[in-house]
Design a protein that fits this description.
The structure holds two protein chains of two kinds.
Chain A (H helix, E strand, L loop, with lengths): L2 H17 L5 H9 L7 H25 L5 H18 L2 H16 L2 H34 L7
Helix pairs in contact in A: 1-6, 3-4, 3-6, 4-5, 5-6
Chain B lengths: L1 H38 L7 H31 L5 H72 L8 H10 L7 E8 L1 E2 H11 L17 E2 L2 E4 L15 H13 L3 E2 L3 E2 L6 E10 L9 H7 E9 L1 H11 L6 E7 L7 E4 L9 E6 L8 E7 L7 H79 L4 H31 L8 E4 H19 L2 E6 L6 E4 L1 H18 L4 E8 H10 L17 H4 L4 H4 L10 E10 L21 H7 L5 H11 L4 E6 L3 E12 L27 E5 L3 H13 L3 E5 L2 H10 L6 E5 H6 L1 H14 L6 E6 L16 E5 L4 H12 L13 H9 L3 E5 L3 H13 L3 E5 L2 H7 L8 E5 L7 H20 L18 E5 L7 H6 L4 E4 L4 H8 L5
Helix pairs in contact in B: 1-2, 1-9, 3-9, 6-7, 9-10, 10-17, 11-12, 12-17, 19-21, 23-28, 25-26
Classes of the chains: A mainly alpha, B alpha/beta.
Subcellular location (chain A): Cytoplasm, Cytosol; Nucleus
Pfam families (chain A): Hpt
InterPro entries (chain A): AHP1-5/YPD1, HPT_dom_sf, Sig_transdc_His_kin_Hpt_dom
């Protein structure tokens, strides 16, 4: 594929991510932090986010299956998830986390379950979006092009 | 209010009732006591002690009642202890009073009955006595007649009495025996004497009823004399009638009058009795035996009593015969009383029985009296008891209403408390919401503004640039507005805290002045600041907030002032207090622009500070400032003045349309002033102007400057150049206030100033020549007034020539009038446009006098660049439990060249930060599991303190600790929620500041620059 076309595709894709609210300016800042000294910074951070989030989501699912639900622990997990998602700028996940925390505080099991499903869904979405974006970037750099900012 | 009144009323009524009860109880016991005293005369010896005892007793009772009273109050005072208690009380009250009224009714009606009975008995007795008396009188007459007969018939021979005489006599004396209807005399005739007697009389003895000649008897009692009415009984044998025989026998045996049982009289067919007396031959002794009496009997005198008519007659003589019914009975035979008089109409009412004694012990008579009418209704008793019942019910109703009202009021009160709580909660929630929303809006707005900034740097044509400028201005206005709302919300939720940094008040006011200078020049309004010399150079407080207040007040003034001036004056409170008495002359004319102003002394009339005699803060390093902002604007209409400080309230809705603004500026200012321990007030006269005055307490900055980092970052380049030191200047201005302002600003440059009011004076000073005058500053007003003379002045001053002639400056109010330059011709004249402020003045002077200008050293540096300078090579520890956050923060700091070490737990951080270490700073997340940021910081500070102490006492060598004797690593909190992590909380556990997460370059720079310099 044409390199220029790939680059344009990447830019369009990224803009759509911003437009659809998957990402916010924090992600831009993250990208700004990436330089020659630290060429894979964004990918590193994001994959860290994936690991972290998957662990947290698992914990949350387990916690909700328990007979006696430890809402305090759940709240801490959700707080973590909120923090990391806001750090990478995954704002849809972050916003859901805020709702989720409210349910945790209210000890609303049904709400929590619903929220967990939504968070999982959003997380999966943002993950695929980010992965496909990285794939595009990879293709561009493999083709020897520079990644447009 | 009315509810409260009702409540009060209820209490009062209850109290009254209770007092009444107490009083009644006391009266009863008092009476008891007094009676006891009276009834107990034998206690004379014990008198004293007894009395005491009583008094003690009484004391105790009253104490008890007082206690009850007290408890009653407590009871009332306590909540609604139980409604049921009140209900029970009410119920028993009503029952009690109902019983009481019933018993009162019974008592009263029984009294009435008793009285009735008494009346009846007295009436009955009266009648009985009268009847008896009359009967006795008649009886006595008959007895007297018996004596007559024994004297004149039996005592004389031949007899002096015959039938004719007897009849006549009796007839004529009948009035004396009103009860008898007839009298007759029968003589005792033995059988042996019969024949002789019959012969003598000329008739045979006849039997009664049958009227046949009497059969042979042992003895006979034929009637010989009779009253005319009863003359038909002559010759009848009395012993032949059953009743009569018995009567006769009994009479002669007893020697007394005897009565027959009532029987139908022969002729009249009415009920009557016959009274019989025996006539004896000789006087018998009182104790004569019956036999002796029989032997001595001569005859028998009988009288017929017509009882019925007798009683009738008697009763007619008496009054009120209508009211009672009288019956007379012969009750000799108890079981068959024989009615002698009266109808038998039975009346079940009460009856009184009076015994009658007619002198015959064998016969018993009684009189029975009854009322004719049934007893009347006891109206008095009924009304009294009903009245009492009604009163009791009314009182009960009052009680009930009171209790109900109390309960209702309490309920309402509870409801209101609930509502109040809800409202308060809602208010807090509103503030929180506002804060959050404002915060959220600010972030994207910053993006917009940044982008616009960048856009302006690109190639744009004029129209585009204009659009961008407009967009940016609007954006800035929006941010300012949001900041205001955020401030308001923060203040309302009590989360606004003031900084404590050192700042230069004069520099701040210069800043504000420059902010408004453009506008003031456009409007032609004169703007001036005057700060008293006694206000210290450096103060410690919150410069930003102070500036905000001044800006708010000046902004308002600017909005509403179209002509005249706006003057800001800053004094020490002490100065103003001193001057209150001194400054008595009217200052209304003596103003900056000559327009009248509202007297600013009125604006601080209500301040607490001035009410007290002594200075409020005797501490040496606290500075009480009083700041007045005076304008000659529209003024505030009197009706709007009370709500000037209410948030979102404007004088008139149209104001916001014509002048803009949210109307919270003044409210925020008021809160801020309050936070600065000050007060704010104002005076305003419509069409003349307003003066706002506030006080604020700061600390003096010079003494303890070490503790506070000087805040020089914002007030850049306000350091006043010193090259003018020692110069001399003349200010020509006839208006003292304006001259004072000018002198203040020029003096700040170190220039000695003399104020003169006219040309002559000026020239004479220049001519004096002992001290070279370097510059002359002339008010434009003076200059324009007489251009000729001013030109002359310039000429003259140049000719004097002590070396260099003085430079002449024109102090001009607006830029537009700088065209007046032309009028001055070729004169060497510079124009300094007002408002005066040190930096601008210095620049103008420099330009005119040719003194070199040193450029500003650090301007245009972007924060990120300075951040890089600050952070390069610094070793920084980041503590965050969230790996992603940690990575991002580390990345950000690394970008600025910092050497970053990461830690994920609080304990790890403590280990790493235990001295000796090489960290320059630490960023700490607050919310972490196990140990949160506050706790970790506290522990780190403890460890540091411990080691510092040991080093100080020489227990540990300084060498082992990198030659640092005072360990204190700057710790900054990282938090996503700025409003939650309050400055105070951070400081309390030893943190040095906080930054928001994710990092913002500017904030990061501001915080970090406090430590790395």
């Amino acid at each position: 594929m044409d390199l220029v076309q790939l680059q344009r595709q990447l830019v369009d894709y990224r803009t759509s991510l911003y437009h659809e609210g998957f990402l916010d300016e924090q992600f831009t800042q993250l990208q700004e932090l990436q330089d020659e000294n630290n060429p894979d910074f964004v990918v590193e951070v994001v994959s860290l986010f994936f690991q972290d989030s998957e662990r947290l989501l698992n914990e949350l699912s387990k916690a909700l299956e328990q007979q006696i639900i430890d809402f305090k622990r759940m709240d801490a997990h959700v707080h973590q998830l909120k923090g990391s998602s806001s750090s990478i700028g995954a704002q849809r996940v972050q916003k859901l986390c805020i709702v989720f925390r409210n349910y945790c505080e209210a000890r609303n099991v049904e709400g929590c379950l619903k929220c967990l499903q939504q968070v999982k869904h959003e997380y999966a979405l943002v993950k695929t979006k980010l992965e496909s974006m990285f794939q595009l970037e990879q293709q561009i750099s493999n083709a020897g092009g520079s990644i447009p900012v | 209010m009315s509810l409260l009144h009702v409540f009060e009323f209820g209490l009062k009524v209850g109290h009254l009732l209770w007092m009444l009860c107490c009083w009644i109880a006391s009266m009863i016991s008092m009476n008891w006591f007094i009676n006891g005293e009276f009834k107990d005369p034998k206690a004379g010896l014990l008198g004293d002690s007894g009395g005491k005892m009583w008094f003690e007793c009484w004391d105790q009772i009253s104490n008890l009642s007082f206690k009850i009273h007290h408890q009653y109050y407590q009871f009332i005072g306590s909540k609604k202890v139980c409604k049921s208690w009140w209900r029970k009380l009410l119920f028993s009250w009503i029952i009690g009073w109902t019983l009481a009224s019933v018993s009162i009714f019974c008592y009263m009606s029984s009294l009435a009955t008793e009285k009735r009975k008494e009346t009846l008995s007295s009436m009955c007795d009266e009648r009985a006595r009268m009847l008896q008396d009359q009967f006795n009188v008649s009886m006595n007459h008959i007895q007297a007649m018996s004596v007559l007969i024994s004297t004149f018939h039996h005592g004389k021979t031949p007899s002096a009495i015959d039938q004719g005489t007897f009849a006549r006599y009796t007839e004529q004396t009948a009035f004396e025996r009103p009860l008898t209807s007839g009298v007759a005399y029968a003589v005792r005739v033995l059988h042996s004497e019969r024949e002789q007697f019959e012969r003598q009389q000329g008739w045979t003895i006849k039997r009664m009823y049958t009227l046949e000649p009497s059969r042979i008897q042992e003895e006979y009692a034929p009637v010989i004399f009779a009253q005319d009415i009863v003359s038909h009984v002559v010759s009848l044998d009395m012993l032949s009638g059953k009743e009569d025989r018995e009567n006769v026998l009994r009479a002669r045996r007893s020697g007394k009058g005897v009565l027959t049982a009532p029987f139908k009289l022969l002729k009249t067919n009415r009920l009557g009795v016959i009274l019989t007396f025996a006539v004896y031959k000789r006087d018998l002794p009182a104790n004569a035996t019956p036999n002796e009496r029989i032997q001595a009997t001569d005859g028998y005198l009988g009288g017929v009593f017509d009882i019925e008519s007798l009683v009738e007659k008697l009763l007619q003589q008496l009054s009120s015969k209508q009211t009672i019914l009288v019956n007379v009975f012969d009750t000799s035979n108890q079981s068959y009383p024989i009615s002698m008089y009266g109808s038998n109409a039975s009346n079940d009412g009460l009856e009184h029985v009076s015994h009658l004694n007619f002198g015959d012990p064998f016969r018993k008579h009684e009189m029975r009296c009854r009322f004719k009418q049934k007893p009347p209704w006891p109206l008095v008793a009924i009304t009294t008891s009903i009245f009492i019942l009604v009163i009791a019910l009314l009182v009960g109703h009052i009680f009930y209403a009171t209790v109900n009202r109390i309960a209702k009021v309490e309920d309402d009160c509870h409801k209101m408390m609930e509502l109040k709580k809800q409202a308060e909660a809602a208010d807090v929630a509103k503030s929180q919401f506002l804060a959050t929303v404002s915060h959220e809006i600010r972030t994207p707005m910053n993006g917009v503004l940044g982008m616009l900034d960048m856009l302006m740097d690109t190639n744009l044509d004029v129209t585009q640039l204009d659009y961008v400028r407009t967009a940016q201005a609007s954006g800035k206005a929006l941010v300012a507005l949001i900041n205001e709302v955020l401030d308001q919300a923060k203040i309302e939720s009590g989360k606004l805290e003031l900084e404590e940094v050192q700042f230069d008040l004069r520099a701040i006011l210069d800043d504000v002045l420059s902010l408004f200078s453009g506008k003031s020049q456009d409007k032609g309004v004169e703007l001036a600041v005057y700060i008293s010399d006694r206000v210290p150079e450096m103060l410690i407080g919150d410069p930003g907030r102070f500036r905000q207040i001044i800006t708010n007040l000046m902004g308002n003034s600017m909005k509403f002032t179209e002509k005249g001036h706006i003057l800001v004056t800053v004094h020490l409170v002490e100065e103003v207090i001193d001057s209150i008495e001194v400054e008595t002359e009217s200052s209304s004319k003596n103003t900056l622009s000559g327009f009248p102003v509202a007297d600013r002394r009125q604006s601080w009339k209500g301040f607490r500070t001035f009410g007290q005699e002594e200075p409020v803060h005797p501490l040496s390093d606290s500075i009480n400032l009083i700041v007045s902002v005076e304008d000659t604007g529209l003024g505030i209409p009197p009706e709007a003045q009370p709500r000037v400080f209410t948030p979102f309230m404007q004088v008139d809705p149209s104001i916001s349309r014509t002048h803009g603004g949210t109307g919270i500026g003044l409210s925020i200012s008021k809160c801020l002033v309050g936070l600065m321990n000050g007060e704010i007030g104002f005076v305003s006269i419509p069409k003349v102007g307003s003066t706002f005055t506030f006080t604020a307490v700061f600390a003096s900055g010079s003494s303890s400057s070490k503790e506070y980092k000087s805040q020089q970052i914002n007030s850049q380049s306000n350091t006043v150049p010193s090259e003018f030191h020692g110069m001399r200047a003349l200010v020509m201005d006839p208006r003292p206030v304006r001259a004072k302002v000018s002198r203040y600003h020029i003096q700040r440059l170190g220039i000695h100033v003399e104020v003169i009011s006219d040309w002559k004076q000026g020239l004479s000073i220049i001519n004096r020549g002992d001290n070279a005058i370097h510059m002359v500053l002339i008010e434009q007003e003076v200059w324009d007034r007489d251009l000729k003379r001013s030109g002359l002045f310039i000429d003259k001053s140049e000719k004097i020539g002590h070396g260099t002639p003085p430079k002449v400056f024109l102090l001009s109010n607006s830029i537009s009038s700088s065209s007046g330059n032309a009028t001055t011709g070729a004169c060497d004249l510079s124009i300094i446009s007002k408002p005066l402020r040190a930096s601008m003045l210095a620049a103008s002077l420099q330009r005119a006098m040719g003194i070199g200008n040193k450029g500003n050293p650090r301007n245009g540096e972007s924060p990120s660049l300075s951040l890089r300078n600050l952070l390069l090579g610094r070793k920084i520890l980041i503590v965050d439990d969230n790996n992603v956050n940690l990575k991002v923060a580390a990345g950000a700091l690394k970008k600025y060249g910092a050497d970053v070490v990461s830690a994920t737990r609080g304990t790890e951080a403590i280990e790493l930060l235990t001295p000796p270490h090489k960290f320059d700073a630490c960023f700490m997340d607050i919310q972490m599991p196990e140990m949160d940021g506050f706790e970790a910081t506290r522990r780190i500070r403890d460890v540091e303190q411990n080691i510092n102490n040991h080093i100080q006492f020489g227990e540990l060598s300084v060498d082992a600790y990198n030659n640092v004797s005072n360990w204190h690593v700057p710790i900054l909190a990282m938090t996503a929620d700025v409003i939650q992590a309050t400055h105070e909380q951070c400081q309390r556990c030893g943190m040095d500041g906080y930054v928001s997460k994710p990092f913002e370059a500017e904030q990061l720079y501001r915080e970090v620059s406090r430590f790395f310099q």
